[in-house]
Specification:
Layout lengths: L4 H16 L14 E5 L10 E4 L6 E5 L5 E5 L4 E4 L12 E6 L7 E5 L8 E5 L7 E4 L17 E3 L7 E4 L5 E4 L7 E2 L21 E6 L7 E5 L7 E4 L7 E2 L9 E7 L5 E6 L10 E7 L4 E4 L12 E7 L7 E6 L8 E4 L7 E2 L4 E3 L22 E3 L7 E4 L4 E4 L8 E5 L9 E5 L7 E5 L6 E2 L17 E7 L7 E6 L10 E4 L7 E2 L15 H4 L4 E3 L6 E3 L5 E3 L7 E2 L10 E2 L7 E5 L4 E5 L7 E2 L23 E3 L7 E5 L2 E5 L7 E3 L4 E8 L9 E8 L2 E7 L7 E2 L11 E6 L7 E5 L4 E6 L6
Parallel strand pairs: 26-30
Antiparallel strand pairs: 1-56, 2-3, 3-4, 4-5, 6-7, 7-8, 8-9, 10-11, 11-12, 12-13, 14-15, 15-16, 16-17, 18-19, 19-20, 20-21, 22-23, 23-24, 24-25, 27-28, 28-29, 29-30, 31-32, 32-33, 34-35, 35-36, 36-37, 38-39, 39-40, 40-41, 42-43, 43-44, 44-45, 46-47, 47-48, 48-49, 50-51, 51-52, 52-53, 54-55, ...
């Protein structure tokens, strides 16, 4: 994911901790329905800071992501296997480091923890990540913080593989001598940790990598990416005593990644920051322990070298003179990979002779041709095949089988099975494609086939984040969306509409609101102005400071009367005259009966006196007020964790869903013969946080996920399908979109 993701995901994680108590509690007896779960295919989509090949088995590799958990490459079926679908602790989906065992191919360890104020643990598996033993640890991690491209911080002694070392961000060096079951701080290590810093987004690079030299028993190296002082340390007696290592680049450059070749020489990449953003300079150096000599092998050393640093580093297992490094934050001309066959004396810049085939994930062709990539923090050469190499980017992972060959080098996304995206919103319309989505960082998609990566993402305008989506209930080909970019101000229109169900879009310009007295930008400039479409598709209503409507696709606009400023509006899905909203100042429902031109107060009964828990203030939050497709005036409203229903356009309300504290909910096609639409919810019942379904209007709920399908409990949105009973879509924060069908029915 790109630059602003940490702020969003940290806020989401905090909100989920509030809603769910941080960790889903153990399962209790509950009615359930068996469901079959499948990922909606996009392919990659986010930042995977590190890829590691098993050193002992061909075709075995592991990938760590910053918010979507870990994956294992399964060579026989030819796809990546997610290893944390059963995980219920949100923080454990941010992987700080991963380490396949150097002796036993079945063993793998990983360090998991998303941020410094969130739970952290060391995971151990004896079946390649199929099952994990989880050991909570007292040192904090930052799998989704700045510096997540550093590493690897977790290392296994190849000669005594029950011994592990972990270089932490804030608390120096730690050791386990019983395969990760217990950990103790290495008090003899000469560089103390800085402790957790104040500030929500503040962090440290800490100890950036730990490396064992397999040729010398007891020898290991540890690097520090904290500013000042000595940055590299060596032990020749298994960590009992340590020596600071002088030499190398000036102390303004920080060691970020390192690798030891079969010749025992250490190759280190350096940056002037921990990244993944803000790096301006870097270097590559080699250190030979035999003579203590350092050598600068930086590919571009001239004063006019492009801005950026070096991070990824790899050495061929067959020939230690074949090394590769990657740049990071080199936007001009582009991040690249360099390859040398003579230990860094000469370099080949691979970007210049590479092509990319992104046919399986065509969204990468944003500008007509996929670029080489950005945030290339992870780089690896297959230890069993020197022609097979891979590197990660902020949006995908590329691999080639031509790494050692001359001529044009072809790279393809190596992402089958990886769904590493943050979903902001989604909708399943009453016609057209079954799913239209809004993503963070990569806009979103129209999925005609849930098993195929769509041909393109939302464009015209291209907005990195799609914040709201709506469709006309009687004319579902008419859709609208709002969005924002990574910059504070959207450079062009933040709104768009579609006449073909989201396949193509047209920008929608809205007259600017008067400037704010405090100088803050108006909502249409930031993407905060949501948009709603009437049931017949004739009217668009935009939530600017003073709400406006257009009935001619943006040619002319009129102000809405009686609608409070900056409240989320819902259109009836069947009656084109009606729109609904909440006047929070007066704690009442307001409704339009003339297509959005005027709103009036509705005399309502059955709602709580205080409606403020339903107030949506964040542009990415889901609307708590939903209208039912095909049933005019049938409304649903979530107030806090409680659900209310009105069958008469908001005049009378009945509380339903008792016993379930709802965090997110959505509507789907009714069960055969049922009066009410199917309800789908993420919430807590009798201490169990899970995914639930009701087919009787919320009176009774059945669990539809199980303990093997929890995806870190990092959810953003849920919705049923109005055309297919039982189908539900879940948008996660890091594991893409999942869809579920009643077990057995998915093949119908």
């Amino acid at each position: 994911m790109k630059a602003r993701k940490w702020r969003r995901t940290a806020a989401l994680a905090a909100s989920l901790v509030v809603v769910f108590g941080g960790i889903s509690r153990p399962a209790v007896a509950a009615d359930s329905v068996a469901y079959h779960w499948t990922s909606v295919t996009v392919g990659g989509g986010g930042f995977a800071p590190g890829i590691v090949f098993s050193p002992v088995e061909r075709g075995l590799a592991y990938l760590r992501t910053d918010m979507g958990g870990a994956y294992r490459w399964d060579a026989k079926p030819g796809h990546w296997v997610p290893l944390e679908n059963d995980q219920a602790t949100a923080s454990y989906m941010g992987i700080e480091s991963i380490a396949p065992d150097p002796v036993d191919a079945n063993l793998v360890y990983m360090a998991a923890g998303m941020g410094k104020d969130m739970p952290a643990a060391i995971f151990r598996s004896a079946d390649r990540g199929g099952h994990w033993k989880i050991v909570p640890v007292p040192f904090a991690m930052g799998g989704n913080e700045d510096g997540r491209g550093l590493g690897e911080r977790l290392a296994i002694d190849p000669l005594h593989h029950e011994t592990l070392f972990f270089g932490s961000r804030h608390d120096s060096l730690w050791r386990s001598d019983d395969s990760g079951a217990h950990w103790a701080q290495v008090t003899s290590f000469p560089r103390a940790g800085l402790g957790k810093p104040a500030g929500r987004r503040a962090t440290h690079g800490g100890l950036s990598f730990v490396l064992f030299d397999p040729r010398h028993a007891g020898r290991l190296f540890v690097a520090s990416a904290d500013p000042g002082g000595t940055h590299l340390f060596r032990s020749d007696d298994d960590g009992t005593h340590w020596s600071p290592m002088s030499g190398g680049p000036h102390e303004g450059l920080l060691p970020v990644k390192g690798v030891i070749g079969t010749d025992g020489i250490l190759t280190i990449t350096y940056c002037d920051g921990i990244g993944p953003n803000g790096i301006t300079r870097g270097a590559v150096w080699r250190y030979d322990p035999a003579g203590g000599a350092w050598r600068d092998i930086t590919p571009l050393r001239a004063a006019g070298a492009p801005v950026g640093g070096y991070m990824g580093v790899a050495v061929s297992a067959q020939d230690p003179s074949v090394i590769a490094v990657s740049t990071v934050d080199r936007s001009r001309p582009v991040d690249t990979v360099w390859r040398s066959t003579d230990a860094g004396a000469h370099w080949d810049e691979l970007w210049r002779r590479s092509e990319r085939d992104v046919g399986e994930t065509p969204f990468l062709d944003l500008d007509g041709k996929a670029n080489f990539g950005h945030w290339i923090a992870g780089l690896a050469i297959d230890p069993f095949d020197a022609d097979h190499a891979a590197y990660v980017t902020g949006a995908t992972m590329y691999a080639t089988d031509m790494f050692g060959r001359p001529g044009t080098m072809l790279w393809k996304p190596w992402t089958k099975g990886i769904e590493q995206t943050a979903i902001i919103t989604l909708t399943s319309p009453t016609g057209g494609a079954p799913l239209v989505s809004g993503f963070g960082d990569i806009a979103g998609f129209r999925h005609d086939d849930l098993s195929v990566s769509p041909p393109f993402l939302h464009r015209n305008p291209y907005l990195t984040n799609t914040n709201t989506l709506d469709y006309a209930g009687l004319a579902p080909a008419i859709m609208v969306r709002s969005g924002s970019t990574h910059t504070r101000i959207v450079p062009g229109p933040s709104l768009a509409w579609s006449a073909d169900g989201g396949a193509h879009w047209t920008p929608l310009d809205v007259p600017p609101s008067p400037p704010h007295a405090d100088g803050s930008p108006t909502p249409e400039r930031t993407g905060d102005a949501a948009i709603t479409v009437s049931a017949d598709g004739s009217t668009f209503l935009v939530e600017t400071d003073r709400p406006q409507i257009t009935r001619d696709r943006g040619k002319t606009w009129q102000f809405v009367e009686g609608l409070p400023s900056r409240v989320r509006v819902t259109a009836d899905k069947t009656d084109p005259r009606r729109f609904y909203a909440i006047d929070f100042a007066a704690n009442r429902i307001v409704r339009s009966d003339d297509g959005g031109a005027h709103f009036h107060a509705v005399t309502s009964t059955g709602l709580p006196q205080d409606l403020s828990p339903a107030h949506v203030v964040w542009r990415e939050a889901q609307n708590p007020l939903l209208a039912t497709p095909g049933q005019a005036g049938l409304l649903w409203l979530k107030v806090g964790g409680d659900l209310y229903r009105s069958a008469d356009a908001g005049a009378h309300w009945v509380r339903t869903g008792q016993g379930l504290a709802i965090a997110y909910y959505g509507l789907g096609r009714a069960a055969p013969g049922a009066r009410w639409p199917a309800l789908y919810a993420i919430g807590t019942k009798q201490g169990l946080t899970a995914v639930w379904r009701s087919i009787d209007g919320g009176a009774g709920w059945q669990r539809i996920n199980d303990d093997q399908h929890r995806w870190g409990m990092r959810f953003r949105v849920i919705s049923g399908d109005p055309r297919r009973f039982g189908r539900v879509y879940i948008g996660t924060d890091g594991r893409g979109i999942l869809y579920g069908d009643v077990a057995g029915s998915e093949r119908k």
